[in-house]
Amino acid sequence: MNVRTRRAVLLALSLSMLLGACAVREQRPEGEWLEERQSWFENYPDWRVTGRLSVSDGEQGGQMAFDWRGQGSQHDLRLRSVVGGKQWRLMFNEGGALIEGSDVGLVRAEDPDLLVAEIVGWPIPVSQLAYWLRGLTASEDDRVSFAADGTMDMIGQDDWTLEYLRYDQPASGPLMPERVQALSPPYRVRMILRTWRWMDPAA
Question: Which residues are registered as beta bridge partners of 79?
Fold first, then answer.
């Protein structure tokens, strides 16, 4: 490759990187992205997402891999600690929750959040995350704020606040959260949502 060709290649690469850095997501009115996801999940109530989460109380922390499947109001959340390999399976709906896993047998309770805090050892607001991790509101009581492009950048209820740090556009489906952070000082739960899948309702 001669000098002139090399310079042309470098220039093309530089322009490509510059254009990529300048790419801006489509701006929409506040709430329009939310309405799109609400409509999508009404049509695809059977969904699944995998990823990792980290928990911290400001002094100590831990990491877990998760696999979350929702089927309407029924949720099936599987957690596995990165260190030690402990595993739990939490199943919950509006009627209550049960958890099974490492060294606990099978435990039932009405509140899935309290059950996770007791058995897993960390407070994780799963009842609200069932909506929030999909970029949806859990109830009319949610406090919501929007970014300049119309996406939600914060949602909160009671003692928990969720910040949307990054969105991604899957190959199919609407714009979805990719990185989120739930805060209830001193506790923090960070989630990386890696793979979104929707089951064909006609299947």
Answer: 66, 88
How far is the C-alpha of 106 from the C-alpha of 98, rounded, in Å? 7
What Cα–Cα distance (Å) separates residue 77 from each residue in 45, 46, 92, 195, 201? 16, 13, 9, 15, 21
Query: How far apart (Å, rounded) are the C-alpha atoms in residues 126 and 116?
Result: 8
> Can you tell me the distance from the alpha carbon of 173 to that of 176, in angstroms, rounded to the nearest whole number?
8
Rounded Cα–Cα distance for residues 47 and 65 (Å)? 17
pLDDT digits (tens, 9 = 90+) for 136-185: 999 888 999 999 999 999 999 889 999 999 999 988 889 999 999 999 99
**Domain covering 29-198 in this structure, CATH number:** 2.50.20.10
Q: Where are the domains of the chain?
A: 29-198
